[in-house]
Design goal:
SDR family oxidoreductase, about 15% strand
Length: about 280
């Protein structure tokens, strides 16, 4: 699927392609009030982070994308600049190498956005890890890494953003349906995302005093590299889709839309909310 905003019918499937996979992009959604705002997106070198950066830039937002792999991030930023060359009013995209576990690095990242563009309005805590191990085999190192990246990274990013945002700023964290549903072999991941969900609520309460909104997105099964392990196993995919009331995977663009909503003025009275985008799977 491409990063274009071409209008198609959402929610349709093509039987000749992967079963349960959505074909085409969402109907185009514009939020003109986002134009000229400045955003930081972590984990933007690939996957959903790259799509968030692309969607924002195409709507006139200046974006600082960050990834632990600096070379990957620069290639992604360069690619987005080329793609957006023909998009009227597209925002600028720059890349930075950042380990979100490093609080000082996140502070420097926020300052980079301020120095480059003169303001900071949006922060998306997208960077994360997706470890797998049975409970009895979770190592100290794996648990520490998972909590450090998935939870501490969110906190440090929010701290860095809040110190530089003006009232009206918005922070969005990446939670997961795994925060409320158990997945065998994913105890470290599930517990970290449960922490992100509650941390989002805590941040919303405390940063609300500064006029900063904090929300989270909780995706379910989405067609990304992170779910390739189940998509490549027909039996596992069929079982997974049985637990999704809409009986299909979500498309990345179906995560982008809610993200843009939470960042927009349409959601200016929404804070402390964890928005499930999971095809209803949290209820099964």
């Amino acid at each position: 699927m491409t990063l274009t905003d071409t209008a198609h019918t959402a929610g349709t499937t093509d039987a000749t392609d992967h079963p349960g996979r959505v074909q085409g992009d969402l109907m185009q959604v514009q939020h003109p009030e986002l134009r000229d705002r400045v955003a930081v997106v972590t984990g933007a070198g690939r996957g959903m982070g790259a799509r968030f950066a692309a969607a924002l830039a195409r709507r006139g937002v200046n974006v600082v994308g960050a990834d632990i792999d600096a070379e990957l991030m620069e290639r992604a930023a360069s690619g987005l600049r080329q793609e957006n060359g023909g998009v009227t009013g597209a925002g600028e995209v720059v890349g930075a190498g950042v380990d979100v576990r490093d609080r000082d690095a996140q502070e420097a990242l926020a300052q980079t956005a301020l120095d480059r563009f003169g303001r900071l309005d949006i922060w998306i805590n997208n960077a994360g890890v997706f470890p797998e191990a049975p409970v009895e085999e979770i190592s100290v190192a794996q648990m520490q890494t998972t909590l450090s990246v998935n939870v501490e990274g969110v906190l440090y990013g929010a701290q860095a953003a809040a110190a530089r945002m003006r009232p009206g700023g918005a922070i969005v964290n990446m939670a997961s349906v795994a925060a409320v549903r158990v997945r065998r072999g994913r105890a470290a991941y599930c517990s970290s995302k449960a922490a992100v969900s509650h941390l989002t609520e805590c941040l919303a309460v405390e940063l609300g005093d500064r006029g900063i909104r904090v929300n989270a997105i909780a995706p379910g099964f989405v067609d990304t590299e992170m779910t390739r392990w189940v998509q490549d196993d027909p039996a596992a995919l069929a079982k997974a889709l049985d637990n999704v009331p809409l009986h299909r995977l979500g498309s990345p663009e179906e995560i982008v839309g809610p993200m843009l909503f939470l960042l927009s003025d349409s959601a200016r009275y929404v804070t402390g909310h964890v928005l499930a985008v999971d095809g209803g799977s949290r209820h099964v």
